[in-house]
Design brief:
Strand order of the largest sheet: 1-2-3
Number of helices: 15
Radius of gyration: 28 Å
Number of strands: 6
Low-confidence stretches: none
Distance between the termini: 81 Å
Largest sheet: 3 strands, antiparallel
Mean pLDDT: 86
Oligomer: single chain
Length: 323
């Protein structure tokens, strides 16, 4: 049976002792709330579905974030970026709240407040982190009765993917005026659909010119993949100098990105980023007649929806196929 005791003018403490269950105790501001909670817990015990939320009721989000940062984040590829998100969440009004007390309405308010000055993608990344924290806490940290409030809210709508493709003459203009170190990166991005970081991290041990393949042991999505090399790509690799350290490119990704931006600005080419070359290359693979599975094996996209965001076929090219 539950015992309810008044402790001061605005506190009612409930204690439930039941054989086979740990002591359950909670304090409320009204006697009615205390009785409702007692009835709920005893009913769950009677039906054998009770799961204690004691740990979740005494663990704050701040404490959970610190544990997540120590145990989960270090194993992730984007650990540095995730620590920044953890710092943001740690400074939010949610941080001092107990995990069991955080509701979906609280998460929705956090989402709306952040959207005032942050992009939907930024807020989505923070919500995904928060959701995974609740999942880990429930499955691995013993907080079995914990509910994930992030699953019950709407995620911010992502903006439409960029559809920038190279216009007539732009490729020739870029290659004609690009610095000697940057030109091969542009060509290989267009021929392989690799990300800039993937190209920069290539080593000669990853390249087999005889078999015409480039192996990427590490990628953005943590899955290795092997990319076939076109005749043009092979020619570009053969022309590159060899370095004693085994690296193919001496650029850092940041330096290459800045150099490309400077080149685009100098040539007065509007709204073009290096990553758009991956869009262009992916679209060209489809235009060569490759099917979605073949293209995905080259680009590394996990789903067709993701692949669609990077694919923009020219209407005039499709019209020619129609006859």
């Amino acid at each position: 049976m539950a015992s309810i005791n008044k402790r001061g003018p605005y506190q009612w403490q409930v204690k439930i002792r039941r054989k086979g269950y740990p002591l359950q105790s909670k304090t409320f501001e009204t006697e009615e709330d205390a009785k409702k909670w007692a009835r709920l817990i005893e009913s769950e015990m009677d039906r054998g579905v009770f799961i204690s939320q004691a740990e979740a009721e005494k663990t704050t989000l701040q404490e959970a974030l610190e544990r997540y940062k120590k145990e989960i984040t270090p194993g992730k590829k984007g650990a540095k970026q995730e620590i920044s998100r953890i710092n943001v969440l740690s400074a939010s009004p949610l941080a001092p709240r107990y995990l069991a007390s955080i509701r979906s309405t609280d998460i929705a308010k956090y989402r709306d407040d952040r959207l005032h000055d942050r992009k939907p993608s930024t807020v989505n990344n923070e919500l995904n982190l928060l959701s995974h924290l609740f999942t880990v806490a429930k499955k691995e940290w013993g907080l079995e009765g914990l509910r994930n409030p992030v699953k019950d809210i709407r995620k911010p709508k992502q903006p439409a993917g960029r559809d920038r493709r190279l216009h007539l003459g732009e490729e020739e203009k870029l290659l004609k005026t690009a610095p000697q170190k940057l030109r091969p990166l542009i060509v290989l991005a267009l021929e392989t659909a690799m990300r800039l970081g993937e190209l920069i991290n290539l080593r000669w041990e990853n390249i087999n010119l005889t078999r015409r393949i480039a192996h990427l042991p590490e990628t953005k999505n943590d899955s290795a993949r092997t990319v076939p090399l076109s005749t043009r790509a092979i020619k570009e690799f053969r022309a590159l100098p060899r370095h004693l350290d085994g690296k193919i490119f001496t650029y850092s990704a940041n330096a290459a990105s800045i150099a490309f931006s400077d080149l685009v600005k100098k040539q007065e080419i509007e709204n073009l980023r290096f990553h758009d070359l991956r869009h262009e290359a992916t679209s060209r693979l489809f235009e060569k007649g490759l099917n979605p599975m073949e293209v995905a094996s080259i680009t590394g996209h996990k789903t067709l929806q993701m692949l669609k965001r990077y694919t923009h076929l020219r209407a005039e090219d499709l019209a020619e196929k129609l006859g």
